Every structure is written in structure tokens, then in C-alpha cells.
Amino acid sequence: MQKEAKKKKFRWWYIPLGILLLLVILIAALVLWMHSMLPWPNMIAMTSNFQMELSDGIHAAAVGGQRDYSTLPEVLTMQDGTPVTTEREFAARRTEILALFEENVYGVLPKTGYSTSFQIEEEGEALDGKATRRQVRITVTTEKGSSDAMLLLYLPNTDEPSPVVVGLNFNGNHTVLDDPAILPSCANEKDEEALAAERGKSTGRWSIAEAIERGYGVATVWCNDFAPDDAKGYTSRVVGLFDEPEFKAVGAWAFGIHRCVDYLVEAPEVDARRIADIGHSRLGKAAVWAGANDERIALVISNDSGNTGASLTRENHGETLKSINAMFKHWFCTRYQQYGADANALPVDQHLLLACVAPRKLYVASADGDLWADPQGAWNSFMASRPAFELYGLETPPDGCLADGETQPHGGMSVWTEAMGYHSRAGWHNVLPEDWAYYLDYMDKYL
Predict the structure, then answer these.
(1) Percentage with pLDDT > 90 across the chain
(2) pLDDT tens digits, residue range 96-154?
(3) Which residues contact 143 (CB under 8 A, 6 or more apart)?
(4) What pLDDT shows up at residue 11?
């Protein structure tokens, strides 16, 4: 009679071993999925989101050397190949460029079919009497209904109209300054206790007190008042007022900046000739799109806006067209996704959008550790936009403005002309008082 086979005993360490193997499989699958959208240098660039220090060699590999811009569209050439040689011809080129971006990248930016009204909800002294705080309800109305946004405006107490910097914030008006009089943003769903805990937590990102000291007003609205940054919920506010399936989140934020400008140009305390718009990261994308479309904005400021902001899409060594559309489909139009397999087929690139700011002023800023936003691509885009400014006879940064061996400005370096400004800051993806110091210094000199 054959002996019965011995039963294998269950070992306690099978459980942690199984969990470990499962984790390895999941991580490997995630890496492979990411690699399907990101070449290895771009994968390395992603580490900047976690503020990981890289060796000089790995950093250089992520930044890359020569980039192939052979398919980059010419600034001063119409879509049909006609050269652009006059300001009048560039006005037509600008119209063409903006239409191409609307069709292929950002989606619809409504220009008609709505009305806007303003109601001052609160006004009072602020910053120890140096400023006046004004809070204005902006109401956008269409035949489908209306949606409100709360504009928070600080103006220096001076006898003359003041220049103003306007931009959207990420977490609610109450976060931009520790001022208990700031009203909740219109999209706010938090109670008073939660608001109090968050009050002023983003003060460093706005430098309102410093701006007031130097004679500048600051205006801001929570981006969620115009469109929540949510793939399922972004249509819940102004987007839902329009029957436009291609009215997307970045477009809604740009639309919101325009509505803020509607108010500012009519306010007697504001110098309507000296309005700047500013945005960081995804709101930097919106600031550039808004500024390129609105000639009332005298200075367009992009802070670390990255892919589909100031940085070129072609040869991008940070976030790619394919990855940004995989993660944030609600930001851009549906057609943009079709270029994920071949960014070179895109009929535009971001230098063209920067060029549309001419003959107004353009300022682009990067952080040298923020590889995900591809500062090299931002600098290349900035420099590639110069022909539009030069067509108007404006001075632009010369080719030899960098030291030998440098391919982009190093941290702590700025390059300024009357029409164009750029600085690189040491550090990571953020907007800091140091960045604001650059902006205000530039405005002091040129705005």
C-alpha cells in the first residue's frame, strides 16, 4: 500500500511574500503603463514632483541635449505658407493661430451668448490702512441660467489709479491672505471652522502685502468658482451655462480671467492700461491662454506652466502631450488627444501662443529643479516666440545672452528686455515671494 502524500504545511510567511509579490507586479505594471506615455528621460523628470535631488549626470540626461525642432511651425508664416512681413499681416496670423489653438488644444472660449454683471459684496480697509479690500460678485448669465464667482481685490490707498495683477488661486480666496474679512468663495462647501484653519495658508504664493507696498493692486478668484478641477464636476459652474461640449476646464479658467478683467477695466481705481495676468502650473496654462486672447492684458506672466503652457510640446522632456491627456482629459479639447502618438503632427506649438502676446509684454518663469514642467522647453519656447515681438520693432533677448555651455538660464538668473522677461529660480514647482520680487521689479521697470 502506497504511503499517503504528506500534506504541505501552510507557512505564515506565505502571506507577506504573496503581498510583496503582488506589490511588485502592481508597481511593474504602473511603471510599464507610465512608460507607454513617457520616455525614460521624462520618467526621470517626474521625480521633481517629489523634490528628489538628482546627480548632475542624471539631471543632464533628463534635461537632454539637442532637441529636434525641425517641425516647429514658423511664427511669421501663415498656415498656407504665405510669409508675414507687416504688423497688419501678423494680426491675421494671430487670428489664425488662436483659432488653431481653440480647435486643436484648448477648446471653445465663448465670446458671445452671455452677459456679465457685478455686485460689490464688501469693502473695507486692509493691511493696516495701506489698502482697500473689495469683494465683488461676478455673475455670468446665459439663457440656461447663471453662475457666480467672488473676486477679491486689494488696491493700494493712493490718489492715482493703480496697476493690478489678476490671477486665479487654487484653494479659495480665504487662503491668499490672513484676513478674517475675506468672504467664502462662491463654490465653497466648507464650514467656518475649516475655513478658519486654512485662512492665509497660501500667503506666500500671492505676496499681496509686498505688491501693495510697491503700488500694485492684486485681484484673485478661486478657480473652482468658474470650473472645479474635476473630470466629472468641471461642468457644474460656467461650463454648464453653454451648449458647448468642447468648452473645457482650462478654457473656463481663461474665460474667468477675462470676466475679472471686464470688472477691472471699468473700476476707476484701476489703471486699465496696466493690467497683468498671472498663473502658476495649470492655472499658468489658463493665464497664457487668457492673455494671448485678450489685448486688454498688458503683461502676461507664466509661472512654471509646463506642457500646454509656456513649454514646447514637441521634444518635451517633462510631462508629455500623451500623459497630460491621459491624466487630465477635462482640461483640453477632445481633438488634442489624437496628437498623443505624434506631437509633431500638431499644427501649433506653445511658442506661437506666446507670440500672440506681442506687441504687449510677456514674462515666463521656471524653477531649475522643476523638470516635470520642462524649463528647457519653456526657455526654447520663449526664445522661439521672438520674431513676433521683433516684427513690431521691440527689443528681444539676444542669442548670446547665456554663458558658454549653458542651454537655459541657471537658477537665480533673469533675462529682461522691454517686451520680454524670463527668470529661473532655484528649487521646485511653486510660485514663491522670490518669483513675485522678479515680477514686481520687472513691472517697476517696464510696466
Answers:
(1) 89
(2) 999 999 999 999 999 999 999 999 999 999 999 999 999 999 999 999 999 999 999 99
(3) none
(4) 79
- Report how far residue 374's alpha carbon sits from residue 351's, in angstroms, rounded to the nearest whole number: 14
pLDDT reported for residue 1: 45
- Is residue 162 annotated as part of the catalytic site, yes or no? no
What CATH number does the domain containing 142 carry? Answer: 3.40.50.1820
DSSP 88: H
Q: What is the pTM of this model?
A: 0.94
Question: Is 396 contained in some domain?
Answer: yes
Transcribe 410-441 into DSSP letters.
Answer: PTTEEEE-SSEEEEEESSSSS--HHHHHHHHH
User: For the chain, how are helix, strand and coil distributed in percent, rounded to 5?
Assistant: 40, 20, 40
Q: According to DSSP H, which parts of 36-86 are helical? A: 40-45, 56-63
Q: How far apart are CA 42 and CA 373, in angstroms?
A: 10
281 is a catalytic site residue: yes
Percent above pLDDT 70 for the chain: 98
For residues 322-343, give the mean pLDDT: 96
User: Which residues, at least 6 apart from 180, have a Cβ–Cβ distance to it below 8 Å?
Assistant: 199
Query: Does residue 258 belong to any structural domain of this protein?
Result: yes
At 7 the pLDDT is 66
Catalytic residue among 162, 202, 281, 302: 281
From the list 342, 404, 409, 403, the residue with the least C-alpha distance to 382 is 409
* Total tally of structural domains belonging to the chain: 1
Instruction: Answer yes or no: is 184 within a domain.
Output: yes
Task: Enumerate the β-bridge partners of residue 275.
Answer: 164
Could you list the residue range(s) of the whole structural domain that residue 430 is in? 105-446
The pLDDT, as a whole number, for residue 247 is: 98
- CA 228 and chain centroid, separation: 15
DSSP code of 1? Answer: -
Place of cell 480666496: 173
Q: Is 34 exposed, middle or buried, given 0-12, 13-18 or 19+ CB atoms closer than 10 A?
A: middle
Mean pLDDT along residues 331-342: 96
Note whether residue 83 is domain-resident: no
